[in-house]
Amino acid sequence: MFPRLLSFFTLHERARIYPFIGFILLLACEPLLASGLTWLGLGAQPTYLLRTLAAVALLLYYHRHYVEFSLTPTFQQAVIAILSGLLVFVIWIFPYPEWMGGYSAGDGKAMPMHNAIDIFWLVCRWAGSALVVPIIEELFWRSYLMRRLEHSEFMSVSPAHVGTYAVVVSSVLFAIEHQLWLAGLLAGLVYAWLYRRFQVLWIPVLAHMITNAVLGAWVVFGGHWQYW
Fold first, then answer.
1. Range of lowest pLDDT (33-42, 90-99, 129-138, 210-219)
2. How confident is the model at residue 104 (pLDDT cuts 50, 70, 90)?
3. Is 2 a residue whose pLDDT tops 50?
4. Which of 60, 61, 104, 122 is deepest in the core (most CB within 10 A)?
5. Mean pLDDT along residues 153-177
6. How far apart are CA 164 and CA 74, in angstroms?
7. Contact, 111 vs 118, CB < 8 A?
8. From CA 153, how far away is CA 198, in angstroms rounded?
9. How far is the C-alpha of 177 from the C-alpha of 169, rounded, in Å?
């Protein structure tokens, strides 16, 4: 059964799908996982770290197949990525109405910050969101799905040749992944534009990292826990 599941996707597809899907599946199982960890006396805090470590393990397993990471951005491109990431952050924290997925100030639960252990779990949460999630999401949504929608042989598709249909559909699906669906849609379009414009995956990854890193700081220091 499992070998058949593996053979359903090509090696290049698995390398870009499995880290993301593994992270999402563990997120879906988080209540059960948290209950098990609490029963073991570890508390529910390690759940995000476990999801992150699972994603990192899969990224390391497939790392030789990420040829799109062989290209690195120039200084000017990195600046554009950083500015784009900040733009998406502003888009994300806009006060959207509830029908657009907007949060209220009372949503969310603050993470404790009473001792060194609390700070450790907080740093794990921030690091996973800022450093790991952008890589697995950009590999899946932009490098794989956006190009796969353009052609079944996605590895042969240059990001510059991805059409409007693939950009829009992949961005809409990216939006569905997030409660703030309009912000997610706009963010997806920004990241897709960066990849199509510069053909360097590190650029949308860097923009995504900036967005998540600044958002995490805003959540913690501003008390806007509803965004986590």
1. 33-42
2. confident
3. no
4. 122
5. 97
6. 26
7. yes
8. 21
9. 13
* Separation of alpha carbons 125 and 132, rounded Å: 10
Residue found under tokens 């990216």: 174
Task: Pull the structure tokens for residue 185.
Answer: 């849609």
Map tokens 């899969």 to a residue: 58
Quote the tokens at residue 36: 């098990």
Nearest to 77 by CA among 227, 207, 223: 207
Q: Please state, as a whole number, how many other Cβ atoms lie within 10 Å of the Cβ of residue 3.
A: 7
The pair of structure tokens assigned to 160 is 């510059």
Residues 176-202: tens digit of each pLDDT = 999 999 999 999 999 999 999 999 999
**Which residue, chain included where needed, has tokens 């996973």?**
128
d(CA 137, CA 208): 9
Q: Average pLDDT for residues 69-79, to the nearest whole number?
A: 97
Q: Give CA–CA dist 152/101, Å, rounded.
A: 33
Secondary structure (DSSP) of 19-44: HHHHHHHHHHTHHHHHHHHHHTTS-S
Rounded Cα distance between 20 and 8, Å, is 17
What span, in angstroms and rounded, lies between the C-alpha atoms of 24 and 126?
A: 17
Q: What is the pLDDT of residue 6?
A: 57
Q: At what angle do helices 30-39 and 46-61 cross, to 10 degrees?
A: 120
Residue type, position 59, single letter: L
